Every structure is written in C-alpha cells, then in structure tokens.
C-alpha cells in the first residue's frame, strides 16, 4: 500500500517498482491527470481505473497485462495511452477513447485490431504483435503508423490513402505479398 495521498494531486509516478496491483488509494485521486505506472509487474487492471475521469496521460507499458477492464474505456479525456510491452490479446473498446492522440500498443499479443473514428489519433505504434488483420478507418490525423514485425498478409491501401497527414509508415517484416487498392 501507499500512504495517504492528497486528492488534489494531478500527477503521480509509481513506475519502475515491483507493484503487482495499483494501490487502492490511487483510485480516489479524482483530479489525477497524469499517471505513470510503467515497468512494474501489473497482471490485472482494477475496474476502479474508471474513477480517474480526469486522466489525460496514462502509461501502463512494460507490465504483464493480458486484458483490460471495460472501465478503462470510459476515460474520455485520455489523449495519451501507452500499453506497449504487455501481453494483451485484444483491445476491444479502444474506439470509445475518441480524444486519443497517441496510442502505444507495440510488443503485445494482438491478433486483430480494429480502429475507427479516432479522428485525433496522430501516433500509433503497433509493432511486434501477432497481427493478421488491421482495420484503420477515419484515422485522418494519423502521422505515424508502425505495424512492423507482425503477420499481416494484406493491407487496404485505400485506408492508408485517407490518412492525408501520414508522414511515417513502417510495414517491414510482415507477410504482405501485394498491396491491394480496394474501392
């Protein structure tokens, strides 16, 4: 456990420790905007994460998460979410986080990924997963997309063309034989 924490706290860093759970009193910090909990031993994220409605930046990278509670996807103010270097199998409700600008999903166990209507999303690293399929619709602000080191066989180039702000695209080390232009 952690000692009493002041409710007016807006930033908290508990990273690079040996926590297996987020201390319960963290979920009472209703004014928390930035929370760093990377490089711990977190296996499961408590549904109480949904209490932190003011969160703008959340870093849960380098843990041992395999799934996420639905409550995470009620954090509508989130702009920056890093879930890289976990063991996630899916991120079903990510599309409800419509204010996301950066979403880190690299080095997980994702097989399918469907992202749509994240119109503010600028950076999406999804490298080193097991992705066979990726769907990206209406990601008009995307500037950087890294889907390298996956198992993608086919890429819908029409979706890529819609990304008018795209500056960096990495599709290396996949199973792509051709890039199809679908209408």
Automatic annotation (TrEMBL):
Pfam families: LRR_4, LRR_LRWD1
Keyword Signal tagged: no
UniProt feature coiled coil, ranges: none
Domain of life: Eukaryota
Keyword Lipid biosynthesis: no
Entry-linked Gene3D superfamilies: Ribonuclease Inhibitor (3.80.10.10)
Entry GO terms, CC: cytoplasm
Domain Leucine-rich repeat and WD repeat-containing protein 1 LRR: 44-120
Keywords from the UniProt entry: Leucine-rich repeat, Repeat
PANTHER family: LEUCINE-RICH REPEAT-CONTAINING PROTEIN, PTHR48051
Protein name: Leucine rich repeat protein
Protein species of origin: Pseudoloma neurophilia
Classification of source organism: Eukaryota, Fungi, Fungi incertae sedis, Microsporidia, Pseudoloma
